[in-house]
């Protein structure tokens, strides 16, 4: 009898262990309540289980549920997981309560709706009294979305763990994630998840490190009228072009490899601002403010920066791909090529673009929808000042462009030497012009340019063109090319009107007066090839500038290109035409 009792006892024990180790189906509401009563409750979220739920007592109390969904009441944050594995708190279980102490979400998807997050009503949930819990994510996915699409990101391969101390206390998380092929390690802390949803806020920090970039932020995360983070932030990358490709849709392209940026950050769902910003692009350094926000359904990147040296060639570098630029130049445009609006203003002590150098320059680039505006406020250049503004509007009929250009007391000698490497002309130039153009492409706009302007030069010089000396030789029948190193022609003043039609700049009736000589001329130069064709007549004058009755006259032409050599073709006293390459530089004649 005793043997039978022992066998029955063993069988009962084995059966009991087997029953405790076997999964038992339980009500879905049980696991929903267990999960909602912890961290989810403290964060103002609710949990729903749509799939089957099983419970095992051995080797440790564990729940397993399928199709778990955790969401904020306003739908701004949604977490879906096909499988949840959760360990239960044993002391709570002995008291008859289902409370999760640790949980693993397998292949979860976290979706953050930035539009709903920005529209949240003021206030937040009351602080919870939950027990400590550890949450693990395996092969997860994070997706942010918005109406503009500019801030939409997808992070995959998330393996992370979050530990919550309970009773509304500290939340610590760490793990890895992949963003467009770049795997990053991250770690963060939030002092109080519930407090972070109130206007008072909670201390928060985040650090992200990857082979491509490093990011850190330390400040306060708060709710109230709108979710926002306020604090100090910094970002550094060893390859800015690659980072911009990773952040798909960024509106600018720069060639700088190393970049660092830091400042006081205020981040909201549709509004980022960085004040006291320090920006370094390779050797270039900028200070000022930067911001991004959604405005009228489009993203807007704005900034006001200051720098000692703005080298546009160094910043653009190889990012200005010649074939792509050529395609853009010749391709029809009916809509803005920019994915977002732009309002960028930069002031520079010195600004360089190609061979052009400006001082105390203030530049602005403004993109609003299909309208692009570039402005150069009055800047010092080559002993004078320059100012420019260009506006282009894109529509169904193509591009409609307008530009205003002006200069005062510009030293032509410095300008000529700076642009061509040789001082071909000298004097103080004052000029202004207004241009308009239409076309399907930028090439068509340039070919269609129309406009008018005026140019005046005082105290001028013409290199390699000794007009008075040439006229005297004509009277003595001396060949025009007997001495190509004559002194430059100096003149008191010159003025002319400029007409631009169909991409060709024309000077119909220019006048130049110099000691002992006057010059009447007409000229044409093509855009953008820089072709030059000048027809002129020089005549001897007396001391008052009146033509001499028996004075010599000399018609001649100048042909060539601004970027290349100019050739003088003269025809004097009925003799044959002679080609005289113009002498570059005025130094020999000074």
Automatic annotation (TrEMBL):
InterPro entries: AsmA, AsmA-related
Key words, A-Z: Signal
Superkingdom in the source lineage: Bacteria
Signal peptide: 1-21
Biological-process GO terms, alphabetical: regulation of protein targeting to membrane
Domain AsmA: 341-509
Protein name: AsmA family protein
Biological source species: Lichenibacterium minor
């Amino acid at each position: 009898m005793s043997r039978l009792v022992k066998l029955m006892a063993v069988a009962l024990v084995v059966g009991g262990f087997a029953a405790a180790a076997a999964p038992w189906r339980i009500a879905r509401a049980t696991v929903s309540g267990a999960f909602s009563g912890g961290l989810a409750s403290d964060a103002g979220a609710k949990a729903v289980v749509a799939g089957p739920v099983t419970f095992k007592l051995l080797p440790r109390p564990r729940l397993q549920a399928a199709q778990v969904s955790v969401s904020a009441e306003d739908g701004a944050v949604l977490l879906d997981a096909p499988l949840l594995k959760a360990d239960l708190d044993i002391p709570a279980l002995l008291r008859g309560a289902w409370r999760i102490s640790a949980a693993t979400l397998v292949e979860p998807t976290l979706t953050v709706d930035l539009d709903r997050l920005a529209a949240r009503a003021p206030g937040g949930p009351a602080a919870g009294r939950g027990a400590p819990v550890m949450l693990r994510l395996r092969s997860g996915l994070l997706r942010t979305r918005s109406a503009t699409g500019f801030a939409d990101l997808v992070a995959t391969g998330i393996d992370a763990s979050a530990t919550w101390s309970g009773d509304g206390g500290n939340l610590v998380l760490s793990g890895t994630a992949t963003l467009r092929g770049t795997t990053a390690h991250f770690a963060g802390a939030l002092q109080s998840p519930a407090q972070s949803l109130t206007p008072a806020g909670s201390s928060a920090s985040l650090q992200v490190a990857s082979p491509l970039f490093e990011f850190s932020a330390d400040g306060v995360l708060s709710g109230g009228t709108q979710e926002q983070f306020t604090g100090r932030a910094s970002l550094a990358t060893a390859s800015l072009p690659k980072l911009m490709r990773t952040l798909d849709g960024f509106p600018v392209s720069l060639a700088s490899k190393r970049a660092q940026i830091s400042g006081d950050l205020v981040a909201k769902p549709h509004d980022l601002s960085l004040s006291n910003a320090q920006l370094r692009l390779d050797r270039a350094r900028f200070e000022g403010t930067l911001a991004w926000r959604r405005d009228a359904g489009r993203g807007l990147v704005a900034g006001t920066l200051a720098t000692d040296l703005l080298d546009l060639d160094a910043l653009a570098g190889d990012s200005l791909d010649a074939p792509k630029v050529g395609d853009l130049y010749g391709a029809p445009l009916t809509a803005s090529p920019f994915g977002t609006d732009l309002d960028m203003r930069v002031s520079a002590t010195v600004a360089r673009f190609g061979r052009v150098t400006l001082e105390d320059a203030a530049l602005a680039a403004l993109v609003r929808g299909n309208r692009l505006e570039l402005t150069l406020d009055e800047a010092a250049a080559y002993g004078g000042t320059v100012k420019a503004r260009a506006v282009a509007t894109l529509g169904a009929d193509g591009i409609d462009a307008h530009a205003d250009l002006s200069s005062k007391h510009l030293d032509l000698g410095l300008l000529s030497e700076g642009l061509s490497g040789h001082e071909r002309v000298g004097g103080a130039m004052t000029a202004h012009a207004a241009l308009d153009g239409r076309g399907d492409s930028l090439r068509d706009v340039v070919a269609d340019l129309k406009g008018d302007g005026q140019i005046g030069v005082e105290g001028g010089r013409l290199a390699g063109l000794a007009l008075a000396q040439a006229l005297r030789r004509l009277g003595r029948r001396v060949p025009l090319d007997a001495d190509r190193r004559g002194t430059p022609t100096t003149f008191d003043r010159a003025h002319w009107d400029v007409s631009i039609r169909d991409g060709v700049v024309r000077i119909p009736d220019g006048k130049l007066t110099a000691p002992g000589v006057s010059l009447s001329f007409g000229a044409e130069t093509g855009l953008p090839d820089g072709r030059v064709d000048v027809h002129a007549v020089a005549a001897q004058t007396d001391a008052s500038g009146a033509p001499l009755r028996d004075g010599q006259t000399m018609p001649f032409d100048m042909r060539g290109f601004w970027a290349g050599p100019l050739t003088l073709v003269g025809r004097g006293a009925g003799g044959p035409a002679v080609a005289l390459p113009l002498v570059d530089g005025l130094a020999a004649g000074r």
